[in-house]
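tokens incoming
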């Protein structure tokens, strides 16, 4: 070995020793998947999970493209689902349950998942037309950046029961209609017109131009819900789970209403607050015979 080669060998060994020393100072190596948690997977809006939501989908205007069924599922309502699918020439694929777990958004698929055509969002004029066709004054729910799909599903379920003609959500910073919403709404989303709009504040101006009175929900409202007359055209605004109604949207409201509370906890879940106020509107209209 020449002197030059020996010198290079010594330099290489010194570099390796320095690298080992630095690694020891930093501590044991942590795998990448532990150090950097994976980003939350985007929810697939084009699947419905669970037996009852899928049965509801068969009775709706949704187009079911195919079913994934867990191998060996031959009891209960799953038999009816498979039978209905085959009567309508909908492909039924038996798959391993792990495949369903991978596809599922909720992990509570009950052994069956349906792929459907994307949810058909409506436009504001469509919602106003629904009220007109029913001969009723418009009752519209406006959701200002609701982010939890369970809240949206619960709200839609109550909305369908209380005579709401349509629900408006923003295109950004808001949950859309996905499998969790279908499941939580118990199929009510199939019977409710939902519109996505670019700007909530501008939409409230359009609703005012259409003759609706805009009520915002806030615990610091200037009037209490049970003392409010909701007999006219109503647009009811429910705010984000944490932040409530945004400042600009609140400025667009004609009135801010609060729900009276006598307990020590001074706040309500967004879907619960929405449910209480929707029933206030419904009972006002029933009392007025409208």
């Amino acid at each position: 070995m020449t002197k030059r080669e020996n010198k290079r060998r010594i330099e290489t060994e010194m570099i390796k020793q320095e690298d080992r020393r630095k690694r020891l100072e930093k501590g044991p190596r942590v795998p990448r998947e532990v150090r950097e948690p994976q980003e939350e997977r985007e929810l697939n809006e084009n699947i419905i999970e669970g037996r009852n939501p899928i049965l509801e989908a068969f009775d709706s205007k949704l187009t079911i493209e195919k079913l994934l069924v867990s191998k060996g599922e031959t009891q209960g309502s799953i038999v009816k689902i498979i039978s209905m699918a085959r009567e309508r020439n909908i492909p039924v694929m038996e798959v391993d349950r792990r495949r369903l777990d991978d596809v599922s958004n909720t992990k509570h698929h009950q052994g069956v998942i349906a792929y459907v055509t994307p949810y058909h969002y409506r436009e504001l004029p469509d919602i106003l037309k629904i009220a007109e066709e029913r001969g009723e004054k418009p009752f519209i729910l406006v959701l200002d950046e609701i982010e939890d799909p369970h809240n949206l599903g619960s709200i839609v379920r109550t909305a369908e029961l209380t005579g709401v003609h349509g629900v408006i959500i923003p295109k950004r910073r808001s949950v859309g209609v996905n499998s969790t919403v279908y499941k939580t709404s118990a199929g009510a989303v199939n019977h409710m017109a939902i519109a996505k709009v670019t700007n909530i504040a501008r939409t409230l101006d359009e609703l005012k131009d259409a003759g609706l009175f805009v009520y915002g929900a806030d615990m610091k409202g200037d009037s209490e819900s049970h003392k409010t007359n909701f007999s006219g055209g109503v647009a009811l605004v429910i705010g984000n789970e944490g932040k409530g109604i945004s400042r600009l949207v609140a400025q667009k409201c004609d009135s801010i209403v609060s729900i009276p509370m006598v307990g020590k906890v001074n706040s309500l879940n967004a879907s619960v607050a929405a449910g209480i106020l929707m029933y206030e509107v419904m009972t006002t209209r029933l009392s007025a015979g409208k």
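note: The CA atoms of residues 219 and 268 lie 9 Å apart.
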